[in-house]
Amino acid sequence: MKLDRKKILHVVNIYFVLPYFIGDQFKHFARKGYTLFAACSQSEYLPQFAHDNGFSYIETPVRRSISIGDDLRSIRNVYRYIRHNRIGIVEGHTPKGGLIAMVAAWLARVPIRIYFRHGLVYETSHGLKRSILMNVDRLTSALATKVVCVSPSVMTRSVEDHLCPRSKMTILSKGTCNGIDTQGKFNPENIDAQKLQAMRERWGLNENDWVLGYTGRLVRDKGIIELVRAFKKLKAQEPNDTEHPMKLLLVGMFEKRGVLPEDIHRTIVEDKDIVWTDFQNTDMEYFYAMMNVYVLPSYREGFPTGVLEAQSMGVPVVTTKCTGCIDAIVEWQTGLRTTIDADDVARQVARIHDEQLDKKWKTAARQWVVENFDEKIIWDEIEKLYH
Questions:
Q1: Residue 180, phi then psi, degrees to nearest 5
Q2: Which pLDDT value is given to residue 239?
Q3: Which residues contact 78 (CB under 8 A, 6 or more apart)?
Q4: Which fold has domain 188-373?
Q5: Which residue of 65, 79, 255, 312 has the fewest CB atoms within a 10 Å radius of its CB?
Q6: What does pTM read for this prediction?
Q7: CA-based nearest residue to 154, from 270, 361, 36, 301
Q8: CA Rg, the chain, in Å?
Q9: DSSP state of 251
C-alpha cells in the first residue's frame, strides 16, 4: 500500500496538547494541500476543536503512566488508522504520545516519522524510574526518522545523555514546537477593552491590582509550591498597599500526578488574593492582559509556551535556569531568572514591581517573541521536515 506524504497524523496524550502545541498548524497546512489527522485520549473538547480546525481524529487511550494493556491497544489502533487512511507523515508529541506514534508508524512503514522531544521528563526522576524513562526516549528516538528538540538546552542535554545521534536532531529556528500567533491572538493591540473589563469583573480583579500570573498545570514540577510561598512573602512585605494590591492569578487545573501539598492546595482555593480559574479552553490572551508579570518557577521544561505567550502580550517573565526555561527570556531585557526557591522568586518579582520593569520591558518582551518565535517562522521550518 502506497502511503500519502500529504497526509499528516499528530499523536498526543491528551486534548490539551492539541491547541497548545499544534493549534493553527491544522488550518495552515490544510491550506497548503495537506490532510490532517490526530490521535489522543477521549475528551469532551475534541469534537468541536476538530470541527473548527478541519481535521479527522481517533480517540484512543494514551496514558502518561505505564499501562501496558492500553499502550498496546493504542499502538494497534494508531497502526490501523495509519494504514486505513494511508498516512505518510506521523508526528509524535510528549513521551507517551511519541512512543506510541513512533512504534505504530515504524510498523506501518511510514516514511516520515517525527518525534517532538518536548522536554526531558526523567530530569526530575531518580533510580530505576529515571533509567526506564531515558531508555523509552532512546527507543522512541531510534524509531523516528527525525527528532525535533524544542529548545537548545533540550538538545544539549539530549547529546550529553546519549538519547540519539546529534545528526538525527534538529531545532526549529530558536526553539518551540509551534511558535506563537504574535499578530493575531497574542497581540495586545487586538484586545477588546470591554471584554477585558468584563473578564476582570468575572474573576474579581481590578485594573489597579498588580498581578502575578501563571498558566498551566498546577503541579509540583511547575514550581507552584514555590510560587504560592513567594506570593505570601510578597504580601507580608507590603500589607498596606491599598492603591495597587498584589494578586496571584492561576489559570490551570490541579492534577493527581505531581499533586500539591494539602496546605498549598488549600491556600490556592481559599486565599482571597489568589484567583484560581481552573482549566480554561479559551481567551488565554485576556488572562495575560490582566498580568503585570508572568512567573514560572519550573523544575524542568522543554520550551515553556506560556512564557512566550506572555512576552508576546508585553508581559515580562520571572523563570528558572532549568532546561527549556533558560532559553525562553533575554535576562534584564524581557525578564529575570530565579533559582527554585520561594525567597528568590519573591526577590525577583519584587525587583520587577519596585523598579516598574513591567512597564520598561513591555516593548522588548514582545519584540523578542515577534522576531524569533512567530508561528509562521516555525511552520516554515516544520514544512522543511516533510520534504
A1: -125, 140
A2: 64
A3: 9, 11, 39, 58, 60, 100, 101, 104, 105
A4: Rossmann fold (3.40.50)
A5: 65
A6: 0.89
A7: 301
A8: 21
A9: E
